[in-house]
Design brief:
It is an enzyme of class 1 (oxidoreductase). It comes from Triticum monococcum. This is Peroxidase. By secondary structure, this protein is an all-alpha fold. It has 15 helices and 4 strands. Helices cover about 50% and strands about 5% of the residues. α2 packs across α5, α8 packs across α13 and α8 crosses α14. The protein is globular. Bound molecules: protoporphyrin IX containing FE. Protoporphyrin IX containing FE (HEM) binds next to α3, α8 and β3. Protoporphyrin IX containing FE binds next to α3, α8 and β3.
Length: about 350
């Protein structure tokens, strides 16, 4: 008879084998759709260019989806799912409600892809391709994206609420959060540079304009002239849905965001804190403010790492990015929905 230690090892090996059968980490690769949908990347780029021409901000809004998708149970398109009577969607989570936008651009990409190659390209991959294209189309760098993700069957509002950072977050909290995903201080600063494009609401900054950390005073780390401009944009009792540019050039992907931080002209508290509150992040902000190429290189690395976060659960290729395929059964299954009970 085998000694107890061997039994233990055998049991462990079996457990691991079962765990792996359920939790498959998928191999992502460049050119994943080369055979099955050769024009996929071209189609995404074309729809994104059209969206940009319609509304410059929309591509930034789509790029943001990569962050909000990948941090919550991996890059699985869960952020795109509409709520159902039995599932609260991530769209209504604290950081997303009245804030995430341009879902219709993703829908437009998906329809174009479904027309060309039905049931092939995942919504999770669409986000990754579209985020890259948002950067390229606004003047930033280009890179190859690794594809082959599946779409989740569910979404979790609760997980999004627990994970996504608030605009009030300070540098050390952000460093800790990103470290949990094996993202370094450089990744954090580079990825925050995505705020080189896009806009934010007054809702996200009134606390720092009028009552930073409950002090009843504004954030001291603000250039006075910039603060005056933000006060005028966002008066205490004004409309919180008014928006301002996240940097001085909000439709151009460049290193202006970092120059702004160095001059205490960051829009969000979570941005300014990277320069004002932490030695480690300040060093990287300063470097990127002086060297756009270094920022671009680090940004690509950060986006690739962010895109590698996976949901190990078995997924599917959704036909409609807003609903799981099972959520809208094909017609023939709808005819006799209680067949299983019919004995
Ligand atoms: C480091 C932690 C981060 C925090 C605390 C944060 C927070 C925010 C907030 C509060 C807004 C404005 C929301 C509103 O007022 O409605 C925003 C906008 C945006 N965020 Fe972030 N963000 C972070 C990281 C990222 C990352 C990693 C990306 C992309 C990879 C990203 C991309 C964007 C973009 C593009 C916008 C503008 C969207 C638009 O114009 O619709 N953010 N972010």
């Amino acid at each position: 008879m085998a000694p107890p230690r061997v039994h233990l090892l055998l049991a462990l090996a079996l457990c691991l084998a079962f765990a792996r059968a359920d939790a498959a980490v998928r191999e992502l690769r460049v050119g994943y759709y080369a055979q099955t949908c050769p024009r996929a990347e071209e189609i995404v780029r074309r729809v994104m260019a059209r969206a940009l021409a319609r509304e410059a901000r929309s591509v930034a809004s789509v790029m943001r989806l990569q962050f909000h998708d990948c941090f919550v149970n991996g890059c699985d398109g869960s952020v795109l799912m509409d709520a159902t009577p039995t599932m609260a969607g991530e769209k209504e989570a604290l950081s997303n409600i009245n804030s995430l936008r341009s879902f219709e651009v993703v829908d437009e990409v998906k329809s174009a892809l479904e027309e060309q190659c039905p049931g092939v390209v995942s919504c999770a991959d669409i986000i990754i391709m579209a985020a890259r294209d948002a950067v390229v189309l606004t003047g930033g760098p280009n890179w190859d994206v690794r594809l082959g993700r599946e779409d989740s069957l569910t979404a979790s509002q609760e997980d999004s609420d627990n994970i996504m950072p608030s605009p009030r977050a300070n540098a050390s909290a952000l460093i800790r959060l990103f470290a949990g995903y094996k993202l370094t201080v450089t990744d954090l600063v580079a990825l925050s540079g995505s705020h080189s494009i896009g806009e934010a609401r007054c809702f996200s900054i009134v606390f720092r304009l009028y009552n930073q950390s409950g002090s009843g005073r504004p954030d001291p780390h603000m250039d006075p002239a910039y603060r005056q401009a933000l006060d005028a944009l966002c008066p205490l009792t004004g409309d919180q849905n008014v928006t301002g540019g996240l940097d001085a050039t909000p439709v151009v992907f460049d290193n202006q965001y970092f120059k702004d931080l160095v001059h205490l002209r960051g829009f969000l508290n979570s941005d300014q804190t990277l320069f004002s509150d932490n030695e480690g992040t300040r060093r990287v902000v300063t470097q990127f403010s002086q060297n756009q190429d270094a920022f671009f290189r680090a940004f690509i690395e950060g986006m690739v790492k962010l895109g590698e976060l996976q949901n190990p659960r078995k997924g599917e290729i959704r036909r409609n990015c807003r609903v799981a395929n099972g959520g809208r059964p094909p017609l023939e299954k709808q005819v006799a929905p209680f067949r299983v009970l019919d004995f």
